[in-house]
What we know:
The protein has a 7-stranded mixed sheet. The chain has a two-stranded antiparallel sheet with strand order 1-2. The protein is an alpha/beta fold. Helix 1 packs across helix 2. The chain contains 5 helices and 9 strands. It has a single domain, classed as Rossmann fold (3-Layer(aba) Sandwich). It binds adenosine-5'-diphosphate and magnesium ion. The site of magnesium ion (MG) has 5 residues, from helix 2.
Amino acid sequence: MSAEPVQHEHGFYSSEINMTKTFQLPDLKATERLAAALAPICKSGDVIALFGNLGAGKTTFSRYFVHSLGVEEEVPSPTFTLVQTYPLSGHDAEAIWHFDMYRINHPAEAYELDIEDAFDTGISLIEWPEKLGSLLPDSHLRIELIIGDTEGSRTARLEITPHWADRMAPVLDSLSDLIQ
Length: 180
Ligand SMILES: Nc1ncnc2c1ncn2[C@@H]1O[C@H](COP(=O)(O)OP(=O)(O)O)[C@@H](O)[C@H]1O
Ligand SMILES: [Mg+2]
């Protein structure tokens, strides 16, 4: 990583702040740890964009994320419903909104799924976020899941922008053994 400062619309900051972190997830337990480490740093208005092919683990990650915040109900894939919501209590976000955008044909169809409410008052987990085009908020946390060479292994690549950098320290600390 270059030590050169990079120019940004809000001024200059060290390139160290805008970084990609790659996690090696050898098994489901590691995916659960990643989800459970990220969930407590999320707040109302946050958007996690889950990139990755079919079977990469986007729904599995989301399930662990939702359950780690104390939601006890089942977390099915939103493949057909396109969105599932999970109310939170004692949290500044009203709910977790779990979207699967695979079946939308045009970004504007996401308005019918109440994405504006989700982005205003909830934590949004979005599978197939590329379908949203420019409706995906700039402040999103990008997580790309990649199927590994050995059974059960995945790689997770996180794009840590300044919007996320400050609160990411405890996540990086607790998962340091998984960081490549
Ligand atoms: N380390 C892992 N992380 C996530 N999923 C894994 C892992 N190892 C195996 N799997 C399995 O891979 C499948 C991922 O499916 P799913 O989460 O539905 O993917 P997607 O939503 O990306 O299409 C599940 O059957 C899950 O149990
Ligand atoms: Mg899925």
